Amino acid sequence: MKKELFDFLNTDLQFIKGVGPVLATRFQDVLGGRRVLDFMLHIPAYVRARGITENVQSALPGDIITIPLLVKSHKKGGFFRGRRTPTQIACADKMGNNVLIQFFNVNFLDYWLKKLPVGQWRMVSGKLEQTSRAIINHPDFIEEMQNAEKIPAVQAIYPSGEGLTQKTFANVRDQIFAVLPDKISSETNPQVLEFFDALQHVHFPESADDLNPNSVYVAKLAYWELLAHQSAIVISRRNRKDERNRRVVRAKKYDLLDKFYATLPFSMTGAQMRTLDEIFSDMSQNIPMMRLVQGDVGSGKTIVALAAAVKMAETGAQTAFLAPTDTLAQQHYAKIKPMCDKIGIVCDVLTGRDKGAGRKEKLISLRSGRTKVVVGTHALFSEGVEYKDLGLVIVDEQHRFGVSQREALRGKGNNPDLLALSATPIPRTLSMTIYGDMDVSIINEKPAGRLPIKTTKLSVARIDELVARLRMQIESGAKVFWVCPLVEESEQSDMTAVESRYEELKKVFNVVGLVHGQMDKKQRDAVMAQFADDSSDMRILVATTVIEVGIDVPSASIIVIENAERFGLAALHQLRGRVGRGNLQSYCILVYGRNVSEEGLKRLDVLTETDDGFKIAEQDLIMRGTGELLGTRQSGWVNYHFVDYRMHHDLFKLAARAARDIDIPDAWARDLMYIFDRRIEIGA
Fold this sequence. Notes:
It is a single chain. The protein is α/β, with parallel strands linked by helices. It contains 22 helices and 23 strands. The strands form 5 sheets. Strands 13-14-12-15-16-11-17 form a 7-stranded parallel sheet, sandwiched between helices. The chain has a 6-stranded parallel sheet with strand order 18-23-22-19-21-20, with helices on both faces. Residues about 625-635 and about 680-684 have low confidence and may be disordered.
């Protein structure tokens, strides 16, 4: 890629006219970056037609209309009996029908009044509200008649965020694509030119069909994105096997593994032992291990990972165990440390909370090599953290960490092994393409003594019966999770809010806990710790999906998921996995709302019929595709911009085949890899 184009794609959005540093920061929140390239990869979600009409009576309430209006009078708003009244501009269409334009925001009032001078015709576009008269509140566009073409007949609507309007998106888009041709030289590869041409068509759609996943331009972009990913995977595999990346196989110095097995109060399953054989075989090679362990909730991945850490400790090398949250790191540490103590391995925990002398002492122990296993969050790869000999990196809930974070931790050692864990079951065909640079092990057995979770669905109309039954269970010592999808009630939604459910349950039960993502983290962790403490009086915890991953309360045996039809299957399966972690018979009650759809009930039926996470993942894929399945909110396997697995299934195979045949160092695929930010995976 030529330097001029390269520099343009990397331009900070704050330097685009009309943006500046404040809006650039807001763009970063939405785009995940603030470069011109980040904007270009953020395509519209849908289009809004703005058909021109000359007669307001030909439109229906709720329609988006574009109509010429004659401004007749202004009436400034103010206060009447303590309430603010809107500013009103009386207008008429060409047929003489009255149309009222209203503004409720007083900050730019003079600006809008100047835009609509009395006695002048203006082209106005906005949503038609129909009460006893035609009203347009806060029009989206107001233009002089000679500039009417500035109002798009088809408006691209972008996924947005706070403080960003669609006009701002359109302004940035127009400037970027106006300048782009000047940045492309005659030597630019034809395929790269074709890529930018397809991108331009998607940013300037002529109809809703242009944004369909199977449209010619979106399909092209999806293929190139997959090709970039698959090319990076090919290079990653080549690099691992390259002579320059070979390492000296560590010799065994201590006998620890048999001692570790002897401390376990249970026997490992066949699937766990098979997975360990695969891991130990990798660790004995002069090529660094890159292995993903997939296991359903409660399948025993943590013990497998710890066995790998013990195997590494036999060589005298260190293991870093990376968890996505402080809470999960502390839980892993509480489980792992006693086992390490029994066999004489020093285990420690390091998170962002560690400060001062305590943190300094931990860092010295790591640097000296005394600490053999360290559990922690992103703090494990932060500046100032040094390892004497980092031999193994374990990444738990690996989908929550980007490639850059994993590589930053691996960079703390000399070609260390990488073991990634995932409790999000992935269909085999998908896992082969997404994790093509990793070897995959699957733990598909539950530990002995684990009883299947009994799952039922229940109408919200029977909620009082459910509460009465829970009361009896709690009096017998049961602990209950109660999950709701919202924090506060909303007029636009019939979903039960977690705070209102908390208040209702407090009227029935003595001690009820509440946790959600908007709480202070320390407060949230304290409530969770209280619920996990069997000596506590708290028997019921009302929560949002903050408990979806990493909450281990073996004594909790019941989970109620309210408005369950609004969750994806993968999320429901993860939530269900919060119970059934001990030897108690556990129950999951899926409460569905009054307006549940037939498809919503079908999803719940899948959960009641099976607890096999891989079967559930296949059904999720069939029913929803990967719009959410591959998105960061649900699982984040790969944060694709254009790819929809259900629609582009065949493109995965085509891209994988093409990537194997490309001579990467000289190919235009390297430009694609840059565009799609695969630089770290190829070591560029």
